[in-house]
Backbone:
């Protein structure tokens, strides 16, 4: 991908959180490396699927990208500009171009605001509309585009179902015409039949507006459907990154293999006859990660070297990266 | 007393209503099904379809403002709802056990795992403290927890979500039940942990000859585990079929729609087929078929009269005036590539 086509770039980004103290009189601060030396790019108009289990750092990456959580080291580049340490007014202006769609449409909308107020709020905050009334035409167009009825504007969030609320959340994110949207588990809380509606809406909007998505999810079936490329995280580390087809058909990391085989397929004979790799144990605590490869404690293939040295992320095939000694 | 020929569990024309300020919610409307010994039945539906309420009704867990307003639940042919409730109290927790969705809130944080599982044994089996402890360690081992001797003295907060769900399963199995009701047991868990728990349930079922009622919204979970599947929509069962029949040739348009709108890991399609609209409000359920408003096959007949759950030639039951007409899931083509 040429430099001009890259919208978002992460270089060696590490995010740490302080989680209490250890030792005599707490002399040693304990740190949790939620995201450890992660690098990737997202091209314009591309969807990068970011997959990982709870605690893998996927949401933290999304928040770091949007500059909503400070990074300990590494750089974040947006549209050719280093934004790692941008602050104040320039950061405010930057926020217009990058928006977030949340997971829980029940918790992310203020119940005391009407839909018109909710959707026009970003416009008012950024001085692109002076009142709710002034923003009406824009709001109506957005609501219509997101598949909400015309009378939705004057109603409150409680009057809507989960799927409709998520549409309101998407309309709100689109209000400032951003180039980049971080969608953090946008359909996980929705029912199957509604999920498909919202996934289709996100795909249509991307085509119309050349939007770039970071699509954070744990559901590999949805991620496969929506993503051009996929990044797999394990315990704060990027373990595999590549085009969607390669991730599924030419998997390079044993964690990805296990993850894929854990997803049940809605086809009884196939599901019964599949060879499933059921991983033993659980994800290690990122405060105290195991030595070497972080996956070695659960990896069915782990060797002596995996327990001593962490494997680097290497390009195993064109555009297909993996961090494993054995691939 | 018990009827040897009767199915393990029979649910007959069950109705559950919730009397709320907004009006009466018809949560379960005329639901009937059987579970045979050692059988796994999947109960599939979306939020508000009545699947969890049905399970709670079986266990006598419907509290005000909810009430069972009709029908019967029979255990070995005997009614659990009639009488003074002594049969229900004896059966519940002992012969029928339940595992809930959220392993974080189903355990008491103030007591050790051993005390909480032991309580079940001491109450139902009148075991001594020491005997209960020995049995708890056996049970923790049975559900695949490492170091059961140590785990028995741990508190819930010391365990991860997957381990807590194993503890809850151990608790459910304490009295060697004949039926395990699992209400979304893996929904709160990560994919790899979900796989572990499903594997455990399948394994226990085989080893202990357990019947399982698996309640889930995830069609994938049902596919690997269940013999038969009941699909619920708006408080009613719309289709009841063997898993193989349902997945390969769904008869009800809602079942077909659900299958088509579920993205599959092994099949690549350019666009998901969604079911437009949303389920009806059960305060005033429609007179006709509840799915008619979202069904592209719907006719006047569908909107005016409710189709009953009738047998089809292949032995399944479907509540639809136009069964088998909806387009099923996309044919499986060996998937190469993403988008």
Residues:
């Amino acid at each position: 991908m040429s430099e001009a086509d890259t919208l978002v770039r992460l270089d060696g980004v590490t995010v740490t959180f302080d989680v209490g103290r250890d030792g005599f009189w707490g002399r040693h601060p304990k740190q949790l490396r939620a995201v450890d030396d992660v690098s990737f790019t997202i091209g314009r108009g591309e969807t990068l699927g970011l997959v990982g289990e709870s605690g893998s750092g996927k949401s933290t990456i999304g928040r770091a990208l949007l500059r909503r959580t400070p990074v300990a080291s590494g750089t974040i580049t947006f549209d050719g500009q280093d934004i790692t340490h941008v602050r104040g007014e320039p950061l405010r202006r930057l926020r217009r171009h990058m928006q977030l769609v949340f997971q829980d449409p029940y918790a992310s909308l203020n119940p005391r605001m009407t839909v018109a107020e909710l959707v026009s709020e970003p416009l008012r905050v950024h001085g692109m509309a002076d009142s709710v009334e002034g923003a009406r035409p824009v709001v109506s167009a957005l609501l219509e585009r997101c598949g909400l009825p015309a009378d939705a504007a004057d109603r409150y969030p409680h009057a809507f179902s989960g799927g409709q609320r998520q549409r309101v959340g998407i309309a709100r994110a689109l209000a400032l015409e951003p180039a980049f949207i971080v969608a953090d588990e946008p359909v996980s809380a929705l029912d199957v039949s509604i999920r498909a509606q919202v996934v289709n809406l996100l795909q249509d909007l991307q085509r119309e507006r050349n939007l770039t998505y970071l699509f954070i999810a744990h559901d590999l079936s949805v991620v496969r459907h929506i993503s051009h490329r996929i990044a797999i995280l394990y315990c704060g580390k990027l373990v595999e990154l590549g085009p969607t087809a390669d991730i599924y058909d030419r998997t390079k990391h044993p964690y990805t293999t296990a993850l894929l085989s854990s997803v049940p397929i809605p086809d009884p004979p196939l599901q019964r006859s599949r060879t499933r790799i059921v991983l033993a144990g659980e994800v290690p605590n990122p405060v105290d990660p195991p030595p070497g490869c972080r996956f070695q404690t659960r990896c069915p293939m782990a060797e002596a070297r995996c327990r001593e040295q962490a494997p680097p992320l290497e390009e195993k095939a064109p555009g297909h990266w993996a961090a494993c000694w054995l691939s | 007393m018990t009827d040897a020929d009767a199915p393990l569990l029979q649910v007959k024309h069950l109705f559950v209503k919730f009397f709320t300020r907004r009006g009466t919610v018809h949560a379960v409307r005329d639901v009937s099904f059987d579970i045979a010994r050692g059988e796994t039945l999947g109960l599939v539906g979306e939020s508000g379809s009545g699947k969890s309420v049905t399970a709670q009704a079986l266990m006598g867990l419907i509290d005000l403002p909810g009430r069972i307003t009709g029908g019967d639940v029979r255990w070995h042919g005997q009614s659990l709802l009639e009488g003074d409730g002594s049969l229900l109290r004896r059966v519940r927790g002992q012969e029928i056990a339940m595992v809930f969705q959220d392993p974080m809130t189903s355990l008491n944080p103030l007591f050790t795992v051993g005390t909480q599982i032991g309580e079940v044994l001491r109450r139902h089996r009148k075991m001594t403290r020491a005997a209960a402890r020995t049995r708890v360690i056996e049970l923790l081992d049975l559900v695949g927890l490492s170091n059961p001797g140590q785990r028995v003295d741990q508190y819930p907060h010391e365990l991860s979500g997957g381990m807590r769900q194993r503890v809850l399963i151990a608790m459910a199995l304490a009295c060697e039940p004949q039926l395990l009701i699992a209400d979304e047991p893996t929904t709160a868990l990560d994919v790899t942990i979900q796989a572990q728990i499903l594997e455990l349930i399948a394994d226990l079922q085989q080893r202990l000859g357990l019947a399982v009622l698996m309640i889930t919204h995830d069609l994938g979970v049902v596919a690997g585990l269940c013999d038969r599947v009941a699909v619920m929509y708006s408080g009613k069962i719309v289709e009841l079929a063997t898993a193989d029949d349902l997945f390969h040739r769904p008869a009800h348009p809602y079942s077909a729609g659900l299958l088509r709108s579920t993205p599959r890991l092994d099949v690549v399609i350019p666009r998901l087929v969604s079911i437009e609209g949303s389920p009806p409000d059960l305060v005033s359920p429609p007179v006709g078929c509840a799915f008619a408003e979202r069904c592209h096959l719907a006719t006047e007949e569908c909107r005016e009269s409710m189709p009953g759950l009738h047998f089809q030639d292949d032995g399944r039951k479907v509540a639809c005036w136009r069964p088998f007409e909806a387009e099923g899931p996309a044919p499986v083509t060996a998937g190469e590539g993403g988008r």
